[in-house]
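Supplementary Methods, section 5.1.

A reviewer requested that the exact input to the structure prediction be made available. We therefore reproduce it here, unchanged from the version used in the analyses.
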Amino acid sequence: MAEQQQGKGWFGRLKDGLKRSTGQLTGSIGAVFTKRKLDDDALEDLEEILIRADLGVQAASRITAEIARGRYDKDVTDTEIREALAEAVAKTLEPVAKPLLIDPAQRPNVVLVVGVNGVGKTTTIGKIAHDQAQAGRKVVLCAGDTFRAAAIDQLKIWGERTGAEVVARETGADSAGLAFDALIRAREVSADLLLIDTAGRLQNKATLMAELEKIIRVLKKQDESAPHAVLLVLDATTGQNAINQVEVFRNVCDVTGLVMTKLDGSARGGVLVAVAEKFGLPVHYIGVGEQAGDLRPFSATEFAQALCGVADGS
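The structure derived from this sequence is encoded token-by-token as follows.
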């Protein structure tokens, strides 16, 4: 199965990964728009479909109005609606589709990776390390989720896979102290990039947030400009709850960009549109599987076409 996936181009794998989200969205559109006049009732139905597909009320309303322009009171097919929808979604996402920039003048670039438990932070760090190592950069990883032995072990495995040095301590060690030491080590080995994992126990929000603030504080003792990026990892399966997570983490640390994971396990991939509409934060990567190559830089057009079942990807 993994070999089949690797044999496909990225757009094919993205379409496969979004199959559940696409199926729900296009199935609903197909049921409503076999051949129908785009009147007020039809537009209301379309807006409801987009809300149910997790695009959010704000985006659903604006996109429906956009699709109506030039088509109102005309006969439309489901294919026309899907193509218009793909165009409108791409337009919404284009401003946020930005690569993670590593400034060669700033060595090491310090990237703090945050998010609640279970979203795939540690795996995401491993995959970004793989991506950056492929680009010829020297990477150091910091196993800062010191509360979970599994996270520490997992990051060490990714370190072996990617050739990145891993700075780690025993379970329960002070994560801020570890981040401090990791930055010292990254400087010693002239690394281009330091990726720092963090804990994500949102059920104890005050403790978690105090911990993140402390990590940022100790990093600034060495480099006032650090961290140079704070990536929030979101799990697509949580749907609209992703919006709440963005709000919580933005209140504590200056989130500079997003990574959306587990799009292959969800029928709620449309939430990426809702998040983009509400916050306008850069989306650097999306993930549709477990393999290293299943996390890729985000393309607005490819995502929109795959989500709406429009064949292209070129």
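Residues 205-222 form the longest helix (18 residues). These observations are discussed further in the main text.
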